[in-house]
Amino acid sequence: MEKLFVIKIGGQVIDDESKLTKFLKEFSLIRDKKILVHGGGKLATELAFKLNVPQQLVNGRRITDEETLKIAAMVYAGLINKSIVAKLDANQCRAVGLCGADGGLIQAHRRVNADIDYGFVGDIDAVHDQFLQSLLESGISIVVAPITHDGKGQLLNTNADTIAQEIARSMSRHYEVQLVYSFEKSGVLLDAKDELTVIPRIGPDYYLQLKEEKKVFEGMIPKIDNAFAALRSGVSSVLIGKAEELTDLINNKSGTKITND
Amino acid sequence: MEKLFVIKIGGQVIDDESKLTKFLKEFSLIRDKKILVHGGGKLATELAFKLNVPQQLVNGRRITDEETLKIAAMVYAGLINKSIVAKLDANQCRAVGLCGADGGLIQAHRRVNADIDYGFVGDIDAVHDQFLQSLLESGISIVVAPITHDGKGQLLNTNADTIAQEIARSMSRHYEVQLVYSFEKSGVLLDAKDELTVIPRIGPDYYLQLKEEKKVFEGMIPKIDNAFAALRSGVSSVLIGKAEELTDLINNKSGTKITND
Question: CB of B70 within 8 Å of any CB in chain A?
């Protein structure tokens, strides 16, 4: 099977122009088929502040009210998505920027939760893999904004990590998928404050041990859990590491590889 | 040749939820291939006001400084474009929302003007018609936001009427193109204040006469000039009329038809 990279880029990299530029240059150099999924960065929060739209967080998760959803659609699917596409094109990497509503790409439903109303937050039901495949086969790379829809006309806000994972899972029917979580850190670290303590390889047993010894810091746990879930559902490999070192990361020269064995 | 509708929808219709809903329903019912080009509406101006970004107008044209460009990308390519796509999908009309940077769709250059610096305003050089064609042939309708790019990583603000015209012209190599300017009025009116004075048909001679008699109101002149230019460059017909009466408009039951004979 042909290789496909599904690469998530984290918010802090998007906020840093020089890091983003370096990342996009390295992304453009990948000769295999590729999909970029981007998060939001600080821009949405800043815009909400300027517009006096209060941001509610419950258990670290943002509540997406109607005004916050509009801001997310503007910032993620508009400004960030199109800026990335234009920059990729300048790097001779032809790309198309999509959100989950485009071509019915990602069908979701509004999150059901008995205790908390998360507002316009979408949990994913299905990825329209044939649509992605036909674009990729025509030689176009794809840039996905973390906005989905419910098929009834409602846009929804969806976590970019989850989108990357669901796209990777769904595309593993057609390609040998490498899922990459790239962000500001060098990989999964033994000491969250020391960039030199990258763990090069984590299998299921070692992960259990790390969690028991509380050596994996909180923010990484959902990422690694997602990574193992992706591997179980057909994704070939999951890499976690620094966005500006994308080439090294996908060549296993830096970062952490999550593996099933 | 197969028929293709290129339909521009004006800003005031976008601002009116019930008119927009009716328009999108009628758009979804068109069984021929179709492209929707949308303008911006009041939303961008309102957002600029809320964010204290002063809007400069020179000769009725907005100067697009860096902050205004960001607002345009957010509002046009983000919120409006994706909301339309999600609503079309709910009407069983699968669509993909693009700006001119996506897939290298519309290549433009920053406007050169000795007297006025319009800022980040793009004049169109080329439309990537094969990309549009391949999407249309796969059964997807296209929604285009009035944002272009210069191929060097810079997004640009471009008039939606001009985008519709350039897409129509370029696609007339592959399809029998019907260019439709739909907006809040019933068509070209003899009396701008009386919706019952629609001129059903305007040819070149009659247009000259109307202009000499100053019977065409100012705002319509660039639209009609564009219409004749489109006809000269291969577009089959140009229709101008009410967005909420789209079905009647494209069936020549309402509105104004601009014709070369």
Answer: yes
CA distance, residue A25 to nearest chain B CA (Å): 12
Residue B74, chain A, CB below 8 Å: the answer is yes
- A196-229 pLDDT, tens digit each: 999 999 999 999 999 898 888 777 888 899 899 9
Q: Is B53 in CB contact (< 8 Å) with chain A?
A: no
3-state secondary structure of A216: coil
Residue pair B128/B103 in contact (Cβ under 8 Å)? The answer is yes
pLDDT in tens, B100-136: 999 999 999 999 888 888 999 999 999 999 999 999 9
Model-level pTM? 0.96
ipTM of the complex: 0.94
The answer to whether B149 faces chain A, any CB pair under 8 Å, is yes
Q: Which residues of B touch A153 (CB under 8 A)?
A: 86-87, 89-90
> A101: which chain B residues are within 8 Å (Cβ-Cβ)?
82, 85-86, 89, 97
Q: Per residue, what are the HEC states of chain B? A: CCEEEEEEECHHHHCCHHHHHHHHHHHHHCCCEEEEEECCCCHHHHHHHHCCCCCCEECCEECECHHHHHHHHHHHHHHHHHHHHHHHHHCCCCEEEECCCHHHCEEEEECCCCCCCCECEEEEEEECHHHHHHHHHCCCEEEECCEEECCCCCEEECCHHHHHHHHHHHHCCCCEEEEEEEECCCCCECCCCCCCCECCEECHHHHHHHHHCCCCCCCHHHHHHHHHHHHHCCCCEEEEEEHHHHHHHHCCCCCEEECCC
